[in-house]
Amino acid sequence: MKNILFPILILLMLISVMPSYAVNNDGNVGIKVGLNLNSFDFKQNYIPIRQDGFDNKGFHIGTFYTVEGWTFRFQTGMMFIQRGCETYIMTETYNQTLNYLQVPFEVSLKLINFNRPGGLRLNVEPHIGFCLGATQESGTESIPLKIGSNASSDNISPFDLGVSLGISIDLGSVEPYIAYDLGVCDIDPDKESKVKNRSINLGMAFHF
Predict the structure, then answer these.
(1) pLDDT digit string, tens, across residues 185-205
(2) In the chain, what's the furthest Cα-to-Cα distance?
(3) Sign of CA dihedral 181, 185, 190, 191
């Protein structure tokens, strides 16, 4: 729980100073908040194992800084995001939740122009994530998962790499978006299996 509260506290502190920063600087700053539906791409001994849809639910919240052009836009910042997977084995349900502090590097292309700077946008976002904590829940039992690179003692790798592809509608001060996150990094230290994050993200960006 402490691992979750700390990044949220930092993000709230940054959000509190953003309006004054935006007034005194030429850059566009803001916050993003939304929900995500998560799953894993899981292979045991390189054999795919089916996951039952995007059943794990989480949220994301973050800050961003934008360099805006007429057609292209670059955006970076910091995001707290929950990932994970819900797995069904026999009659048991196992819900794994992974908490990441994520740094995005988004490039956005304006596809349809509504008004300047608004429009329909195609967004491509490589990102790196740092795992802050992870848990597995089954029934009323919740156990922490160990983070590290040792295959014999750890459950989750400390780092994640991924790329997000999505669209958004830039309405000026607000920007609704939807994106699909594709993890490209194996987050399981066990070399006998490969686990990669997957998620569908829905949210709203607020520009100051």
Answers:
(1) 999 888 778 899 999 999 999
(2) 58
(3) positive
Q: Which residues pair with 194 in a beta bridge?
A: 43
Chain segment 133-161, per-residue pLDDT in tens: 999 988 778 899 999 888 778 889 999 99
Determine the topology of domain 2-17+30-207 in CATH: Porin (2.40.160)
Burial 148-161 (b: 16+ CB within 10 A, else e): eeeeeebbbbeebe
Strands 47-49 vs 92-112: parallel, antiparallel or unpaired: unpaired
Contact 158, 203 (CB under 8 A): no
Per the DSSP assignment, residues forming a β-bridge with 79 are 62, 102
Q: Structural domain boundaries of the chain? A: 2-17+30-207
Cβ-based burial of 168 (10 A; exposed 0-12, middle 13-18, buried ≥19):
buried
